[in-house]
Amino acid sequence: MNISPAREQLTRHKRAVVKIGTSSLTYPNGMLNLQRIEKLCWVLADLCNRGKEIIVVTSGAIGVGANSLGMETRPRDIIGRQAASAVGQAMLMQIYNRFLMTYNRHAAQILLTKDCVENPVMRENAHNTVEQLLAMGVVPIVNANDTIATDELGEFSDNDNLSADVAVFSSAKLLIMLSDIEGLYNKDPRTHPKATLFTEINEITPKMESAAGGSGTTLGTGGMATKLTAARTALQNNIDTVIASGSDPSVLLQIFDGEEKGTLFTTV
User: Fold this and answer.
1) Largest Cα–Cα distance in the chain?
2) pLDDT tens digits for range 66-99
3) How many angstroms separate the CA atoms of 215 and 191, rounded?
4) DSSP-based helix, strand, coil % in the chain, nearest 5
5) What is the β-pairing status of strands 200-201 and 263-265?
6) What is the DSSP string of 96-119?
7) pLDDT band for position 26 (50/70/90)?
């Protein structure tokens, strides 16, 4: 198998941030896809066993909480989203920890606000905590602290931008964003069956940005536009980024093996 230099570089990265979108954690009806989450935890544990250091940025708290509370869609008011997040976050962490413990790995919850990223002292504290957890073989599970800071329910809470910020302050060399789409296409593949997938990108152009659509699910917030913004942040900090489908968590193993999966944003 011929591997491009950019893809081969991914095999050498030790530390990575993996962002999991709501659509990768739930069924279309909003219920948790436990089978997929269990497989995801198996893959994460296996990567750790390889010697990789994995930080997870998870979406889904508001969506899972909303479904558990009997809501058909995400609540539109801030207080409703805060309540749904509080319920969903507890459920998500319990499940992550239970499945990871099956493979002898602990999960640690880290809730961040925009201040944590922008304030130098708080940023350093977050960095030190992540460093210690990784040294202990623990998988940090990061999410925006929606229940505390209402501004997190805006741009920051899409978790795409958060994942890029986490990759930067944690000194990761790779950012992988798993969503409900294979990667970046020249057109929306849901409405254009012949759309072409970009495999490797060195520069994010205005044309690419115009091809990015909105959020793909009723329970999620992030769309391709926010992923491009996150990828740009990563590129500016010499961090490789892959956008790929989260329908099969084994794609993470394939990415680390250098296989051509999803869209790779790289400076190579």
Assistant:
1) 52
2) 888 888 777 888 888 888 889 989 999 999 999 9
3) 14
4) 45, 20, 35
5) parallel
6) HHHHHHHTT--EEEEEE-HHHHHS
7) confident
